Amino acid sequence: MDSFTHGGNIYYYSKLLGCNANEIIDLSSNISPFVDENIFEFIKNQISSLKNLPSSNAIILKEALANKYDKEMENFVVGAGTSEIIKNLCLINSGKKALIIAPTYIDYERYCKLYNLQINFHFASEKRNFAINLQELDFSKFDIVFICNPNNPTGYYIEKDDILRIAKRFENCMFVIDESYHPFMSNSDNKSLLFEKSKNIIVLRSFSKIYGLAGLRIGYAFSFNKEIIREIEKHCLEWGVNSLSEVVGKYLLSIKTDKIASKINEIKNYLYEELKDCNNIKLFSSATNFVLIKLYHLNSEEVFTKLLSNKILIRDCKNIRGLDDSFIRVAIKDLDSMRYFLSILKKIVGCEN
Amino acid sequence: MDSFTHGGNIYYYSKLLGCNANEIIDLSSNISPFVDENIFEFIKNQISSLKNLPSSNAIILKEALANKYDKEMENFVVGAGTSEIIKNLCLINSGKKALIIAPTYIDYERYCKLYNLQINFHFASEKRNFAINLQELDFSKFDIVFICNPNNPTGYYIEKDDILRIAKRFENCMFVIDESYHPFMSNSDNKSLLFEKSKNIIVLRSFSKIYGLAGLRIGYAFSFNKEIIREIEKHCLEWGVNSLSEVVGKYLLSIKTDKIASKINEIKNYLYEELKDCNNIKLFSSATNFVLIKLYHLNSEEVFTKLLSNKILIRDCKNIRGLDDSFIRVAIKDLDSMRYFLSILKKIVGCEN
């Protein structure tokens, strides 16, 4: 496990276990388990789109986004996942000073390193349950700040107005707000920074998480600042999004996601309820579809390995800067999977009734 | 039409014509029209793979390539089309001296410019029917050389041994040999530089052209030099290839492509035969699935526009450096499409019997 290993590597672990990838209950990647079955019918009818090249710079998706949100196409850039956008943001800021609010998603650091940004971290503290008070921080020394909101892996959500306040105060700094997990919150639309008229905010959004189709590889960014959007797009592949993904993505934009979010929240609450009396672990509160768990008497590798031998894959957090081998992260999946997970976890950590 | 506009933009032109994209006969992108219908059945059964993230760095495809060709995985890098590989090759050679054998595919220049390489061109001459004699050239001043072989858009093929000879002579120069159109040649395997044990050759291969599924976005590079492969991969997205594309790509590797190639060659020969007596145009001989055509009395825009009004899209070559508005490029498609194209083209250029 190197320092930039992600979750979701079921291909590797299925080989290790000698089983099929689909036999593994993957709680390591934060992807919704609830996929509308209509989508698969739709996809079947769109397969022939693979005969053609995708549209240039995913213009089909940019148009669909602009129409849906009544904005201009030039405010959007579409990438092969938010990864392509994060990567190119770092590339165009090569040599500059970056601040990463940590512990967080490892790709900000990965790409800052690759393109030689000067990296600084502000660590949320476990003592404060990983809460972040942005108003305490001085951003004047930084060119670009990465904030995952709600944050992966802590689940902490920073209020929209708090971010707007610092963006106004530090207008020479570009704030990259990664809202990949935003749609899992209740009343999420009102809590989002999408479409704010701020020249120094870029909002990232992912199609991978809420729609349950991480394999599509679609992410996008919105900024009121068209120049920065154009700069990012210059470095994006003209045909980075597969032509089938493109038409599926357009279709997904017509789907309401509130029901998916509330179903996942119910199951998350059940998880909290089931583990609340277990003193050997601590669950941090989470605004989204995964939960960070502190282990008191075992290390993450032991728990990871024991769960894996039961074909359950979780995210061992020991390679996440600002955490250590006493943390694991668990994504919320369907109720049956969570029940099975709970039964095994309770045995491992010693919390059986 | 800016200087880096590609062919294949049926989405744009269908809007212009007010028709569906699939009503347009697309002779502007060099993609085989022959797709095995079994592939679509296979894809239908693999749709659920979209629920999961792709494998890291497309390891599924790298393994399949290594197995098929009995090589090591570490000699391959897989990208979202050869574009991702060309882009990253330029990125890691930023500031260095590049030579582009022209006229050719515009992405070499596009990415050399984007990443500030010092660009030089060697132009094949129309007088010599765009033939290239590499032995006449001095590569000692260059760090990286781009050779598309067979070349797009001229169709000229440079013998494998000619390239090996210069690679040996100029060992400080990296030769990037783009073999995207190689599989369309007869006995193509024997003519390829794939798997040559040369430290300064990188061979690019595309899944888009021969298999007729350009929308998949898969390309790969092979080099005996593992260090350069590792350097390129560092800048590739970990999940650049869609998870459905990945399984489809693996399946495609099991398909023999000789029959596709010979079907296309037959139709190409029919095109040459039908136009051989037409003195208002000249067809250059082509080793692959497209033909460069010189217009003597009309300019490319006139011919382009008239064909388009008949829902035929061709490649106007006026934005290709080293050509001008007397050239068009036409891809070989199924016989019916080519018959229809011939009937319209003959009227336009005045070659009716």
From TrEMBL, chains A, B:
Keywords: Aminotransferase, Lyase, Transferase. Its cofactor is pyridoxal 5'-phosphate. Pfam families: Aminotran_1_2. PROSITE patterns: AA_TRANSFER_CLASS_1. It comes from the Bacteria. SUPFAM superfamilies: PLP-dependent transferases (SSF53383). It comes from Deferribacter desulfuricans (strain DSM 14783 / JCM 11476 / NBRC 101012 / SSM1). PANTHER family: HISTIDINOL-PHOSPHATE AMINOTRANSFERASE-RELATED. This is Aminotransferase. It is an enzyme of class 2 (transferase).
